[in-house]
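Late entry, evening session. Most of the bench is empty. Finally got around to the prediction I had been postponing all week. Sequence below, unchanged from the version circulated by S.P.
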Amino acid sequence: MVIKIKKKHKGKEKVFYKSSKNILTPLDIKKADKFDLELSKTITCLEKILLKSGILSKEKGKKNVLRVWYEIGKALNNFLVKFPLKKEDKDLFWNNLYGYSPLIHKGVPSTRISQTRNDFRMASLLATHPWKIVERVGPWAMWREILSYKNIMEDSRILKWVIKELIKNPRTRNGARPFLKGIAKRFKRIDTRVLDNKDLLTKLNKIITE
């Protein structure tokens, strides 16, 4: 898939196309334009829904930050079902989303954002969980902290355990940071997929008591 990228330079909009492919054909460009148009429609529709619901305001921004990003994640996940991307093109997609809606995110970051810190990618991951569970874990800042740890995200069993623990023993973001760092450190350079459920649970429970 080719991603259409629009950037402003000295008041003028510049358009160019990027892809994991080395050579782009006219058909690639045509598909990228259609993809961009459909994505713009999706985000415009999402803005209207968020504004109408009252959780997003043109004047005051996000009134409920967690819920806004959750709804963004749901909309993006539905969009990607209709317009699936190749794995190698997803980084381009997530990075390019920052330029679509000043209401959702003001401005484009001046420096490149890692995929573990990309708000839109995090929103997509967030929206794979039921809302009732999401809000019980904590605010958007808490979820950004959780989702930034790659080795927590790579094994769904670890993430499920973390969610359960944070609901059982609520923490602030700062309070949860040592706990999350402890998990990341414990499983650094370990492929947890080779561990059975019992072994993994034993190692996770040990982190709490240490």
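Two things to note before I forget:
Strands lie at 3-9, 12-18, 56-57, 61-62.
The mean pLDDT is 89.
Will write this up properly tomorrow.
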